[in-house]
Every structure is written in structure tokens, then in C-alpha cells.
Design goal:
This protein is of the alpha+beta class. Helices cover 30% and strands 22% of the residues. Among the domains are: 44 residues, no CATH class; 145 residues, Trefoil (Trefoil (Acidic Fibroblast Growth Factor, subunit A)). Helix 6 links the parallel strand 4 and strand 5. The termini are far apart. Bound molecules: uridine-5'-diphosphate (UDP) and manganese (II) ion.
Length: 646
């Protein structure tokens, strides 16, 4: 009996304990729920300034706004030392307050792990030899850091970190520019998109805009984070920017690419003129006013400053020689071209804007309404590249114009390599295909012959450009023939006759006529190399008897002595007799008209015998020789793309 009572008691106790446990869990859950609700009520209120709303994807972005427009401390803000993502930043000012951070010394960098500042941690030494050894060791480590920085960013970020956020560019404008006066100008929104930009270059870009743009013309600086991954671009940047007057940070939650990111910036901007700027630029004094003036005078003008160059190794500033204009070739690659002919014009040309067939994307000013009316950026463009060529052809063809303004100068860091890898290796080709299919009409064949990768991609997939073709119709845009004849008449239009154009294949050596790229656009000696099959060795024997080389078609087969070289093609017709060639189909010989000698591929070892140790000639080359029927004098123009295709 006792045993029975004991068992019942134990069971009752268990039941009570279970009930108690259940109520405690319920209470805890209720508490948690209420706490969450309270917290969501206490969430910070979003920025108060009314922003124009973008119609699609309202959840696309996060905005960090500068907190108090009345505080003006941008100019003398302590240059915050650049941060690596594995460094911790301690900000002494409280987050979310309207207070400016204390000036100098208010930021402290805490170093973690590998990137430790070795100077700070080096043990004290008393011995001179040890010091010397340490100095050498430090130099080696510094070099290592520089190398890894170059690998990561495409430029020497270690040096960049040491340069002031407010460095001044040397004066490179023509003295006449300094005399220019500007009336009332429209306001500008500077739109800076970035993806994993280095801290030093990004902030130097922002400060240089704030330091140089007159307040009355600078409506805002919009920083758009295109889904960066580097740690220093996260909360630290938000905190820093929140203290900069007139600077807003917008974060995209999707990777948009250059075209998409800039279009988002444009939709958010409220200034009259949009100034798109790369995230590694430094502005010259007085750069903004001349751009705004040209756009104010004609709203359909898109304009660019002269782009000076910041060296990727030394971060040194190099002034670009005026005049320059933007062009592209038949592979749809963009170049800044120094057009020497312009220099002979009257002295006023030093301050006058130059019409430009295309503009690079580094810095571009365009009226906000015109930009939207003409179709913003092509949203089908993938991540990076080509968007500036598409915009250029569209602006010109659809009623606008483009020019480079000499009294405006902005320096752009030209990197050694892009700092991001692309998931799609054929991304550039895909963007080029969009341009070819939207804008080039029958001329796209010329492009496809010079970019065979694009051609083969196009064979298996076609881009959806329906919207862009509709836009072109709606805007009544002119065709590519008009663009070539009116805007860019200097671009040689290849004839590409069957059997007289393509890779120039040599029977005797089973290789192709080649031009080493490093010799540049001005020309130089030709050689022979394995046939690339990419279209990069394409040439064209035209009805003027010139053999035109390369994507621009601006270099011609020429001779110096018995060597065959490339020289800039004559602009006058008929062409000089030294550059005329005949192709004899029967014997496959290419004969130089003036000398009646034959083109021959000469191998490296033969050249060494001829030149007896002349080091400059130690590569296979193309020479003129008395005609024989040797296979090395036999040539075929191999067309890689069938003429009826593309
Ligand atoms: N960029 C971006 N998203 C991307 C790729 C680039 O916002 O997916 C930014 C980049 O940080 C830079 C600008 O777009 O500010 C132009 O890119 P980049 O400087 O690499 O072009 P480049 O000057 O080398 O032609
Ligand atoms: Mn750039």
C-alpha cells in the first residue's frame, strides 16, 4: 500500500513539474515576442529628405544619408587613414549622432593579424647592423605588400594610402581657360558607382569633388555601392559618409554592373545635370563649370573632361596632351585618340570643345532629362564594358552630340588590370553583340569578321534587343551609315572582299602575318606568328591596292628598305605608291608594286644570319625578296567568317 501511495505521489510531482515547465516556456516566448515588437517600433526612422521614387524594385537599395546638411566640415575633415578589410576601425564619435567626428586623431586603426604595421611592432634595437637588417627586411615586406595590393586592386594601393585625401593636381589647363567666365549654371549630381573599390581611392574621389566643385552648382554626390564585398566598404563607409555634407550612400542589394548601377544613380539624382564618375578619380580645380556650361548651352550635348592619367604603379599624375577625342574600332574597343591635326588650328582651339565620336565612361556629364529621354543605359548590358560605346552611338544617332571640353580636367586612375573577376568570360563579346545587333545594321559584318568569338557566340544565341530596337524607332534614330559618314568619317570602312581579306596565311611556315601589339597605333615592324583565328590578324587588300591592317584599318603594309612594316595609312587619295600591293591568285604571291619584289616570311634563324647579331631583328619577320615560287612567298587570305554570314 505504501508503495502504491509513494508511486502516485511521484507521478503527481512529475505532472506538476511538467506543468510548471510548460508555463515557464510559454512566459519566455511571450516575453520574446513582445520584445521583438518593441524593437521594431524603436527602429531608426528612415532619412527625412524626400527622394524621387524609382518605379521598380523599391527594395533594391539601402540609403545612408548625411545627417545634417548644416554641418560643413568636409574640407577640413581629418584624412582618415585607409583601411584594409582585415583592420578594425574604432570611431570615437557616437553612431547616429549629428555630431561631426572630432578632427585629427579621432580615428584609430586597430590592426589584426597578417597586415600588422611592422614599424609599430618592431622590437627596439641597439646594434647598427641589426637596424640595417631590419630596414632591409621592412623594405622587402613593404614591396610584398605593394605587390599583393597591385594584385588585389590593379594598382599600388600601399602608395595610394599614403597620399593625402586632399592632394592638389598640378595646373594643366591652358592659360586661356583661367580667363573664362561662367554665367549661371545648372546644378549637378555627381554619381559615383563602385564595386570593391579601395578605400583610399574612393574617398579621395569624393573629397576631390567636394574640394573642387562650387557649392552652388553641386546638388549632391551620390555614392552607389554595387554590392561590394570588401569589409571596409560596409558600416565604416556608411559611418564616414554620414558625416559628409551633401553625400549620400545608396547600396544596391543586387550586383547591377556599370550600366545598371549608373541608371539607378540617375533615377535617384535630383540635380539638373548628371555627372557619372569612376570611383578612382581626382578633379582639377575648375573642372565642373566648363562641363555644366556646355550642357546648359545645349541640353542634348554629352560632354567629357580631358582625362589625365594617374599612374597605377606610382599614383603620379600625368597630364594628357590636348587635343583628344574618343573613338572606337571595328572590334568595338574604345580608345582616346590624340588627333594631332587639330593642333595646327588657330590658338582658340586650346579652349574650344572638340566633337567626339564617342566618350569614355570615366567622367561623363549629361542633362538628366536628355539622358532619360534617350534611353538611359542599355539594361541588357552585362556587368562591365561597352556601355559607353552603346551610349555614344545612341546619343549621336538619336539627336544628341558629344564633345571633350579642354578647360575641364579630371585625372583617372588607369589600372593595370580590373580588380574584379567576371563569372562570364565572354561578357564583353555579349555586350558587343548587343551593340552590333541594335545599332550597326549591315556594318555589323565588319565587326564579326574582326571578333570571331563574338561571331560564334552569335551563331548559337541571339540577344533580346527588342526593347532597344523599339526605342530606336520611337526616337527616330538615324542609321549607322549616317553615323559613319557624319560623325565619324575618319573611320576607314573596310571592303573585306572575298579571297582578298582575312588572316594572311603563309604556306611555307604555316603561320600568319602578325603585328606585335606592344608596338602601338603608330606602326612598326611586322612579324609572323601562329594564326590566332580570333580576327586579331585580319587585314584587307582594298581596291586602292592598300593592305589595311587591324581593327581600326588605319595602318597599312609599308616598307623600310627590305623590311615590311606597318605605317599610318595616307589620308589622301590616290594612296602613295610605296603602299600598293598586287595579289596574284595563280601563284599566291603578294607583290610590292613599286619594287616588284615579293612578300616573304623569313624565320628567326635566317634573320640572325642576315643581320649578323643585330639584336633588334631577332624575331621572324616579313621581308621583300626577289620573286620565286618558294612556299614562303605563297600567301592566302583566310576568311574566318563566311562573307554571306553575320
Ligand atoms: N563598377 C560597378 N559595378 C561593376 C563594375 C564596375 O559599379 O560591376 C564601377 C567601378 O567601381 C568604377 C566604374 O564602375 O567606379 C567603372 O569601372 P572601371 O573603373 O573598372 O572601368 P575602367 O575604368 O577600368 O574602364
Ligand atoms: Mn575606371
Amino acid at each position: 500500500m505504501r508503495l502504491l501511495v509513494g508511486a502516485v505521489r511521484r507521478r503527481m510531482l512529475c505532472l506538476w513539474l511538467m506543468l510548471l515547465g510548460f508555463s515557464l516556456v510559454t512566459l519566455a516566448l511571450l516575453e520574446l515576442f513582445n520584445h521583438d515588437r518593441d524593437q521594431s517600433r524603436d527602429k531608426p526612422i528612415p532619412p527625412q529628405r524626400p527622394f524621387p521614387q524609382i518605379s521598380s524594385s523599391p527594395d533594391l537599395e539601402v540609403i545612408v544619408d548625411s545627417q545634417d546638411p548644416a554641418i560643413e566640415f568636409a574640407a577640413d575633415l581629418a584624412p582618415l587613414k585607409s583601411l584594409q578589410e582585415d583592420q578594425l576601425l574604432f570611431v570615437s564619435s557616437k553612431q547616429g549622432t549629428n555630431q561631426a567626428p572630432h578632427m585629427k586623431g579621432s580615428y584609430r586603426v586597430l590592426l589584426l593579424g597578417a597586415n600588422k604595421d611592422i614599424r609599430a611592432t618592431a622590437p627596439p634595437t641597439h646594434d647598427g647592423l641589426e637596424e640595417e637588417a631590419l630596414r632591409i627586411q621592412m623594405e622587402v615586406m613593404e614591396k610584398d605588400m605593394e605587390l599583393s595590393a597591385v594584385q588585389k586592386y590593379g594598382f599600388n594601393e600601399v602608395i595610394s594610402e599614403k597620399i593625402s585625401m586632399h592632394r592638389r593636381m598640378p595646373e594643366a589647363r591652358h592659360p586661356e581657360c583661367l580667363k573664362q567666365r561662367y554665367e549661371v549654371l545648372p546644378s549637378a549630381s555627381v554619381v559615383i558607382c563602385f564595386h570593391d573599390e579601395a578605400w583610399s581611392t574612393l574617398l579621395r574621389t569624393v573629397h576631390s569633388v567636394l574640394d573642387t566643385a562650387p557649392k552652388q552648382y553641386l546638388h549632391e554626390v551620390l555614392l552607389l555601392d554595387d554590392l561590394s564585398e570588401h569589409g571596409h566598404l560596409k558600416s565604416v563607409l556608411g559611418e564616414y559618409v554620414s558625416h559628409l555634407d551633401g553625400v549620400r550612400l545608396i547600396r544596391s542589394t543586387k550586383r547591377l554592373g556599370v550600366a545598371g548601377c549608373r541608371a539607378l544613380g540617375a533615377a535617384r539624382a535630383a540635380g539638373e545635370v548628371l555627372v557619372f564618375m569612376d570611383s578612382h578619380c581626382e578633379c582639377q580645380r575648375g573642372w565642373l563649370e566648363p562641363l555644366l556650361q556646355r550642357v546648359a548651352q545645349d541640353r542634348t550635348r554629352a560632354v567629357s573632361p580631358v582625362l589625365d592619367v594617374i599612374d597605377w604603379q606610382t599614383l603620379q599624375y600625368n597630364a594628357t596632351q590636348w587635343p583628344v577625342r574618343g573613338v572606337f574600332d571595328w572590334r568595338l574597343d574604345f580608345h582616346w585618340e590624340s588627333n594631332l591635326l587639330l593642333q595646327e588650328k588657330d590658338p582658340s582651339s586650346a579652349v574650344e570643345a572638340v566633337r567626339s565620336p564617342a566618350l569614355g565612361g570615366e567622367v561623363l556629364a549629361i542633362h538628366r532629362h536628355f539622358f532619360q529621354r534617350v534611353g538611359a543605359y542599355d539594361q541588357g548590358m552585362l556587368l562591365w564594358g561597352e556601355e559607353q560605346i552603346e551610349l555614344s552611338i545612341r546619343v549621336w544617332s538619336c539627336g544628341g552630340s558629344m564633345e571633350v571640353v579642354p578647360c575641364s580636367r579630371v585625372a583617372h586612375l588607369v589600372r593595370h588590370h580590373p580588380p574584379y573577376s567576371f563569372p562570364d568570360q565572354e561578357l564583353l563579346q555579349r555586350n558587343k553583340i548587343r551593340i552590333a545587333d541594335t545599332w550597326m545594321n549591315e556594318y555589323r559584318k565588319i565587326f564579326y569578321r574582326r571578333d570571331t568569338l563574338a561571331y560564334f557566340i552569335r551563331q548559337s544565341e541571339s540577344p533580346d534587343v527588342t526593347d532597344r530596337l523599339q526605342l530606336k524607332r520611337n526616337l527616330g534614330c538615324k542609321n549607322f551609315r549616317w553615323y559613319l559618314t557624319t560623325v565619324y568619317p575618319q573611320l576607314y570602312i573596310p571592303e573585306d572582299r572575298p579571297a582578298l581579306s582575312g588572316e594572311l596565311y603563309n604556306v611555307g611556315t604555316s603561320s600568319c602575318a602578325n603585328y606585335p601589339h606592344r608596338q602601338g597605333l603608330q606602326g612598326g615592324a611586322m612579324n609572323i606568328a601562329p594564326c590566332s583565328g580570333t580576327g586579331s590578324q585580319h587585314c584587307d587588300l582594298n581596291s586602292e591596292s592598300e593592305v589595311r591592317w587591324g581593327p581600326m584599318g588605319a595602318l597599312c603594309f609599308d616598307t623600310t628598305g627590305e623590311r615590311v612594316v606597318l605605317s599610318p595609312c595616307p589620308t589622301k587619295r590616290p594612296t602613295t605608291s610605296r603602299m600598293r600591293w598586287n595579289y596574284i591568285k595563280m601563284s599566291s604571291q603578294l607583290i610590292h608594286q613599286q619594287s616588284q619584289l615579293c612578300l616573304e616570311a623569313v624565320l628567326e634563324e635566317d634573320i640572325q644570319e642576315i643581320s649578323q647579331g643585330d639584336a633588334s631583328s631577332h624575331t621572324g619577320g616579313l621581308f621583300l625578296r626577289p620573286c620565286t615560287h618558294h612556299p614562303r612567298q605563297q600567301w592566302h587570305f583566310d576568311q574566318l567568317v563566311a562573307p554571306q554570314d553575320a
